[in-house]
Amino acid sequence: xxxxxxxxxxxxxxxxxxxxxxxxxxxxxxxxxxxxxxxxxxxxxxxxxxxxxxxxxxxxxxxxxxxxxxxxxxxxxxxxxxxxxxxxxxxxxxxxxxxxxxxxxxxxxxxxxxxxxxxxxxxxxxxxxxxxxxxxxxxxxxxxxxxxxxxxxxxxxxxxxxxxxxxx
Length: 168
Prior knowledge:
Elements: H1 2-6, H2 14-27, E1 30-31, H3 35-43, H4 48-70, E2 74-75, H5 86-96, H6 101-108, H7 110-116, E3 133-136, E4 150-155, E5 158-161
Parallel strand pairs: 1-2
Antiparallel strand pairs: 3-4, 4-5
Helix pairs in contact: 2-4, 3-4
């Protein structure tokens, strides 16, 4: 097993991955890579002898994200931990893997609502839909890290963070 893991992305058939990506894009599949789990696990993997195989395994994850995104597969922004900044870290990692900021934002809003079947009532700023609003000081379409530039938050129609609220 470690020997196969040590091959990393060299163990992946690019032709078969491209065919898979094309098929998933054609049928409208969603992919939730949770890259931060792999990154965090690599950081915690002792002893040093095991780190290289796990790093190579992570290279397979990066390859899948890059190829699937390049073929138009919809990426969901997900995370498997309870860290307060987990979703933001996942967004950063998706950007590092080559997913565009607009697709990352869709992967955190519109795509999950569609996948969960609640897109008639949530997932986008449209009349008749429930929406919590994050107002930023910088454009996340220019750099996804700008998602951290929170100026105000509106939840259930009320300003809960921002001007005229008590800042933490």
